[in-house]
UniProtKB/TrEMBL annotation:
Function as written in the Swiss-Prot or TrEMBL entry: Serine hydrolase involved in the detoxification of formaldehyde.
Annotated organism of origin: Shewanella aestuarii
Source superkingdom: Bacteria
One Gene Ontology molecular-function label: S-formylglutathione hydrolase activity
Keyword Hydrolase listed: yes
Enzyme class, first EC level, given as a word: hydrolase
The protein's Enzyme Commission number: 3.1.2.12
Gene3D superfamilies: alpha/beta hydrolase
Family of this protein: Belongs to the esterase D family.
Keywords for this protein: Hydrolase, Serine esterase
Protein name in UniProt: S-formylglutathione hydrolase
Amino acid sequence: MTIEQVSSAKVFNGWHKQFSHQSTSTQCQMRFAIFLPPQAQQQNVPVLYWLSGLTCTDENFMQKAGALKIAAMLGMAIVCPDTSPRGENVADDNDGAYDFGLGAGFYLNATQAPYKAHYQMYDYVVNELPALIETHFPVTKQRAISGHSMGGHGALSIAFKNLQKYTSVSAFSPICNPINCPWGKKAFNGYLGKNSQTWFEYDSSELLKKLTDPQSFIPALVDQGESDTFLTEQLAPQALTQAAEQVGYPLVLRMQQGYDHSYYFIASFIEEHLRFHAQHFN
Ligand SMILES: N[C@@H](CCC(=O)N[C@@H](CS)C(=O)NCC(=O)O)C(=O)O
C-alpha cells in the first residue's frame, strides 16, 4: 500500500494534501485529498469521509465548502476520495454524459461489463481507503461519513449497510431513493444490470427500512434546500423520512428555505454538520 504525495499546502495551521495510489478495488490509480488539522501533529484524530456528487473530484469540497477552518478548530481530519475510477483504460459512457461513467461512480460495486473491471467504488470507500488512511496518517478509528447529492446517496447507503463502522452520518441534498429517479435508474441499470432486485442494496430508503435494531442506529442528519432544482425529480427526501418513520429511526431531515443544490448551500451548513459529527466522536 504505497501512496505518493501529489500536493501539500498549509491551511489553518493544518495541512491539505493530495495523494495518488494504485487501488486494488478499482484497479487503477486513485487520487484522494486529506485535511490534517493542527492537532494531528500531537495526537491521532478522528476522520470525516466526504463523498462528493456528480462531476466532482477530490477537490470540489476542499475548495468550496469552507470546512477546513472549522475542522481545524474541532481537530478533525477530512478525507475526500474521487467520485469514480479514472484513466485511459477505464470505461466511460459513450456520450460523455455527466451522470454516468467518469465522475459518476455512485459508490457501488458494478457487476456489469465493461464497468465491473474498475467501478468498485463501494469497496474502495468502505474498505480500502479507510485501511490506507489508518495505516499512513495519525488518525483514530473513529469515522464519520457525509456527502452531497450522489455522495449523499453514497454516505447514507454506506452508513446504513455498515452502522458499526461509523459513529454518525450526514448528507446534503442526497439522492434518497435512486431506484425510483432518473439519475439512479440510469446508473443502476448501467452498473448493476436490468434486474432491479439487485438495486435495492444501494438504495438508502430501502436499506433504512431493513434496520430493525435500535441499539445499532447511529445519529443521522440530512439537510435539503427547498429551492433545489433537482428536489422533486431526483432527490425524494420524503422516501427517506417515510422509511425512517416506518422503523423508528431518529433521522433528522431539515428542509432549508431558499437554498439550491450548490456548494453555497453546503458552505452555509457545513459547520453544523462538522459539529454534529464532532459531538458523536467522543
Ligand atoms: N448542473 C450540473 C449537474 C451536476 C451537479 O450539480 N453536480 C453537483 C453535485 S450533484 C456538484 O457538486 N457540482 C460541482 C460543483 O458545484 O463544484 C451539470 O449539469 O453538470
